[in-house]
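Hi V.,

You were right to ask for the full record rather than a summary. Here it is.
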Amino acid sequence: MTHKGNPGCFASNFLLSNISEFAGMLAPFFQDTYLEAGLDEAGRGCYAGPVFAAAVILPKGFHHPLLNDSKQLKEKERDFLRPLIEKEAISFAVSQISHEEIDQINILKASIKAMHQAVSLLKKKPGLLLVDGNRFIPYKKIPHQCFVKGDSRFASIAAASVLAKTYRDEWMEKLHVEFPHYGWDRNKGYGTAQHRKAIEKWGLCIYHRKSFRLLPNQQNLF
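Predicted structure:
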């Protein structure tokens, strides 16, 4: 599907109920009429590697006290939640867009494409998409709602953030074996001071995102 213009959120024609407020916990749903899928990405701001996205449909009554935005969780907490989410979810899917395609189409479009792919892989078709952030391109005939910091508001988005993050972290740990001097087993491709120093010393490798202008001359020594 080809989309023109700047991606953004659109108002659904569906009548959506107000967000329920849950003290000290994530809302289990935005409205209770349609099957909802939460969408989130991981690795959008990284210097290297692919961007991952996940789509998760949770049962309406799903709740776990640990579940939150993956960035707020410790690694061991994310690793604990992942199999639980995969077991309890009505359906879930994870997708990725390579660093090469990120350089070709830009990171925003790549992130949205990864989310679209994740939705297409769901075994159950949702009636509504809950998207983390404020930028999205409509997906076929499924309405959506965008939420800034949605991964700290809705359980399905938080679950998607956990899956996207853990799957991407595993991917970067595998790439680390090939290029250990960048420390991807620790920084997962993000622009930490250690990663920047390694780039200054070794240059860019084949997995770095060249469109991010990480070095003035974008020298590739590999």
